[in-house]
Every structure is written in C-alpha cells, then in structure tokens.
C-alpha cells in the first residue's frame, strides 16, 4: 500500500447509460455477482481513502439506495443540471469538506475490472512525482470514442482532447485517457472553476483540467497501464458480457491458484465473493454464486448451481441446485436434488437423488436418500427417511413443522402430515399417512390390513395371460409338493 492515504476517491456514476437499453440503471447491472458500482466501491475502499464519494443523477434514488447497502460510509453526491465529468467532480468537491488537501482520486462507476492494486499504484506514482495531475492512460489498437492523450515532441503531456473535438492528426493518436486520475486537491478545486463548456458536447470536461495544468507549468504525469481490461468501461450489454467473462476467467484462475481444482474453467462460473478451499474439485457446468463458501477437499458438480451456500470440508454436491443452505462436512447431496433456503444438512448427512428440501435441519449422519419432499422439518441424528416420503407441511392456510427424532426410521412412501412429532427411536411402516404423533419406541402403521382373496384371477380374469401364468405357477407348486 502507498504510505499516504488518498484524501478522497470520487466515483462518477451520474451518466444515463442509454446504450444499455435497460430499465435498470447501468451501474446496477452485475458481473461476477456484484454490481458495476459495487466493484468500483470495492476497488476504491481498497486504497483506504478518508472520504469516498459517489456522484449520482440518473435514477438517483435507486442508485443511492444500492450504494448505501454496499458501503454505508460512502457519501452520495447529487450532480445538478450542468453536464460533464468536470461538473460531476466539482459537485463532489462542493459536498465534501472544502478545505481538503492531499490526493484526490477520480474513477468511474462503470469500470468493473479496475483493481485496488492499480489505484494504489496510481496514488504511489502520484505521490512520488511533484505533478498536480496523474492520469491513467492505455494504448489501444482502436482508440475510437476515447479522449486522446496529446504529448509534446519531448513526450510531456499537454492536453487530453475528446474524440469529437479532435483534429485529424489527433484522431490518429492511440494513447487514450482511461478517465482514472489522481489530482492535487487544491489545484483540482481551483482549476475546475476555470473549466467552461465551449466544446462539441457543451459539457464541462474534467479533461480540460489537464490542459490548465500544463499551461500553468505544474506538470501532468501519464501512468500507462498494460492490462487494458482494467480501464475498460461498460457501455452496452455486449461489453457487460465481455467484461463478465473476463472477470470470471480471472476469478476462476485465482481460485485455482488458491488450491481449487477446476476441471473446465470455460464452463465454470464463480462470483467474486466466493471462497473455495484447497483440493476441492469443481466439475464442468457449475455456477457458484453470491457469498458461497466451500471447504477443502469437496466435490462440486458437474452441472451444479450454488447461491449463498456454505459447504463443509469433504462434502459433495453433484448435479444439484442449492440456495441459502448449509451442507455439513462430509455430507453428500445429489444427484438431481434441490436445496431451498433454510436447508441445513448435518455432518456426514445425506440428501440423495430427486429430493427437495426447504427450512429443514437434517441431523448428523441422517439420510434422506430418494424422491422426498422435506419442508419445515427437523430430523434427528442418524434418522433414515425412506424413499418417496412426503412431509406435508402446508394445509392450504398455514405451514406446519415436523420433528423426526434421532435414529428413527420412516418407511418408504409415507406422508407425514404437519405439525407432527415423531419421537426418537421410532418406526413408521411403509406407506403410512401419519396424522398422529408417535412416541419413542413405537411402530406407527396407518394403512389397512392386507387381504388375499383365493381364486380371484381364475374367476374374474379367466382365459387371460395372467390366468395362464397363475395356473402354471400353481401346477409347478403342486408338482414340487
Ligand atoms: C470520458 C473522458 C474521456 C475518456 C473516457 C474513458 C471526459 C470529458 N472524457 O469520456 O477522455 O477517454 O471517459 O472512458 O471526461 N459522468 C458523470 N456525470 C456526467 C457525465 C459523466 O458522472 O455529467 C460519469 C458517467 O456516469 C461515467 C463517466 O463519468 O461513469 C464517464 O462518462 P462518459 O459520458 O462515458 O464519458 P466519455 O464520453 O466516455
Ligand atoms: Ca464511457
């Protein structure tokens, strides 16, 4: 980290983003499970500024609410009717204390791959030099649309000229302004008062501050970055996907560097806030979203989606979907199961194939192996829930809770009508509809007694293949006798 904290980071996010063609404000679109402005705030916080301000205008309330959720200490700055990046920064300076000195960093709310490391480098470089402005620049094969960095014959930066204001000669320049800068606070405040709107777009350009700086002989430093992704903004949904894919590539690579085994990085999507322990294997077609945490030596996937899930060490989740769930260490899930919010599977527990769970605490070593709906339930340690068991938790009006005690055994194809308590150490016979509580040690049987009617097939299905088969089987039995 740079030894001096920047006085402020100002994030510009007032623009309309019309090219997104969306009812969602541009900076609220997400990549890697985090909004564009969320990425910008994260990078800004990384350099530990005294003040963090975000300039808003378009969809002001929605954007401001989102920012507050992300970073409650961020100062929301409202930009007025005067347009342009220069005006945006000026509004921020008017909102922040008016005696600020030191370094002020300006970034954009729609440049999501910019890292704290790059901002820190910018601050360090700026502190070391005596220049009033340090601007992050990049050299592009196609500089169309960007402000060009104009240098004198000796290389000194003299101005930044917007595409629409460029001469033909300037249009050929490939070094562009990223829009990320470090300024001396006092100089910036003063210089902005001199910036007008006499340009092709009639806006108050922040870039004009660069020209003012050179004219005063205060020095402008250009900090050229090689990683072009870090300066690329999102203007439309094509760029959103492009930057999202690159962010994912970086996140997956980082996960592998930290010890995860990713079989197919191309079909693995990992959000920015996910953590994965060493030697966990991620199989193809897997999406890991939100605040998911996965322990060490797990098996995740193939074709699995996890969102805000905690998976303990050594657990496996195969071809399944889970949200706001906890999978204990050594537990197994899947294939083909759906863990809804509030699922809490204990250590070494099992949720097998074609099982749906919701608000269900399944004890240590307990098993729900096949074809079950388990909602609003607490299942004790070591209990076994037979194939096809339904926890009927909803009577059409209210939801009821069911408890199944430790080491109990619920037979296949049972329906447990909630609210219900099935004690510890009980049996429920297969095919039961359990409508009364069961005490420890009891067997509950709720089905009708079986009746076998002799000769029924011969009388009622005479001459059919079934009848033939019955006769043949009876004859064989007689011969054997
Ligand atoms: C700006 C720069 C250009 C640079 C490019 C890099 C200026 C005059 N031009 O151009 O040199 O190459 O960024 O992407 O600065 N914003 C506000 N308020 C405004 C206008 C913009 O907050 O009144 C915010 C936008 O939300 C956006 C950022 O500033 O996050 C850049 O605005 P945009 O209109 O995209 O600037 P460009 O014309 O691309
Ligand atoms: Ca832009």
Topology summary:
Blueprint: E1 8-13, E2 30-31, E3 34-35, H1 36-45, E4 51-56, H2 60-70, E5 75-78, H3 85-95, E6 103-108, H4 116-128, E7 133-139, E8 148-151, E9 157-161, H5 168-171, E10 175-184, H6 185-192, H7 208-215, E11 220-224, H8 237-257, E12 261-262, E13 268-270, E14 275-276, E15 281-282, E16 286-289, E17 293-294, E18 299-300, E19 305-307, E20 310-311, E21 316-317, E22 321-323, E23 326-327, E24 332-333, E25 338-339, E26 344-345, E27 350-353, E28 356-362, E29 367-370, E30 373-379, E31 384-385, E32 390-392, E33 402-404, E34 409-410, E35 415-417, E36 420-422, E37 427-428, E38 433-434, E39 443-444, H9 456-460, H10 465-480
Helix pairs in contact: 6-7
Bound molecules: uridine-diphosphate-N-acetylglucosamine and calcium ion (CA).
Calcium ion (CA) binds at residues 233, 235.
Short description:
This protein is 22% helix and 28% strand. The chain is α/β, with parallel strands linked by helices and 481 residues long.
């Amino acid at each position: 980290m740079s030894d001096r904290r920047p006085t402020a980071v100002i994030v510009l996010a007032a623009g309309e983003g019309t090219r997104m063609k969306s009812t969602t404000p541009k900076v609220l679109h997400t990549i890697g499970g985090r909004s564009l402005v969320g990425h910008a705030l994260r990078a800004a916080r990384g350099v530990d500024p005294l003040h963090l301000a975000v300039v808003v205008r378009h969809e002001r309330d929605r954007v401001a609410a989102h920012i507050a959720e992300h970073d409650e200490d961020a100062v929301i700055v409202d930009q007025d009717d005067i347009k342009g990046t220069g005006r945006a920064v000026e509004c921020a300076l008017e909102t922040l204390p008016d005696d600020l000195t030191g370094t002020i960093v300006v970034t954009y709310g729609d440049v999501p791959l910019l890292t704290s490391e790059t901002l820190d480098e910018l601050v360090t470089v700026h502190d070391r030099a005596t220049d009033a402005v340090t601007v992050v620049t990049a050299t592009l094969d196609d500089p169309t649309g960007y402000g060009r960095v104009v240098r004198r014959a000796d290389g000194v930066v003299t101005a930044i000229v917007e595409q629409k204001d460029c001469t033909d000669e300037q249009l050929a320049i490939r070094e562009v302004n990223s829009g990320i800068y470090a300024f001396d606070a006092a100089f910036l405040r003063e210089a902005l008062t001199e910036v007008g709107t006499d340009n092709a777009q009639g806006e108050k350009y922040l870039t004009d501050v660069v020209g003012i700086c050179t004219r005063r002989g205060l020095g402008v430093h250009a900090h050229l970055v090689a990683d072009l992704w870090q300066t690329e903004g999102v203007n439309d949904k094509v760029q959103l996907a492009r930057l999202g894919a690159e962010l994912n590539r970086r996140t997956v690579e980082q996960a592998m560097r930290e010890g995860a085994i990713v079989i197919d990085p191309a079909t693995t999507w990992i959000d920015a806030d996910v953590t994965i322990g060493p030697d966990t294997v991620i199989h193809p077609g897997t999406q890991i979203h939100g605040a998911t945490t996965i322990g060490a030596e797990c098996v995740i996937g193939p074709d699995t989606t996890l969102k805000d899930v905690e998976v303990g060490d050594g657990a496996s989740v195969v071809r399944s979907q889970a949200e706001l769930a906890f999978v204990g260490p050594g537990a197994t899930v899947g294939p083909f199961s759906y863990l809804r919010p509030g699922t809490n599977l204990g250590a070494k527990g099992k949720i097998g194939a074609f099982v749906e769970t919701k608000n269900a605490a399944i004890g240590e070593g307990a098993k729900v192996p096949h074809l079950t709906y388990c909602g609003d339930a607490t299942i004790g340690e070591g209990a076994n829930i037979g194939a096809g068991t339904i926890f009927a938790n909803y009577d059409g009006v209210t939801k009821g809770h069911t408890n199944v005690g430790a080491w109990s055994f619920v037979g296949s194809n049972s329906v447990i009508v909630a609210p219900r308590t099935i004690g510890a150490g009980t049996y429920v016979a297969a095919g039961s509809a359990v409508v009364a509580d069961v005490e420890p040690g009891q067997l509950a049987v709720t089905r009708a007694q079986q009746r076998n009617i002799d000769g029924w097939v011969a009388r009622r299905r005479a001459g059919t293949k079934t009848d033939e088969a019955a006769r043949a089987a009876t004859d064989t039995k007689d011969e054997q006798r």
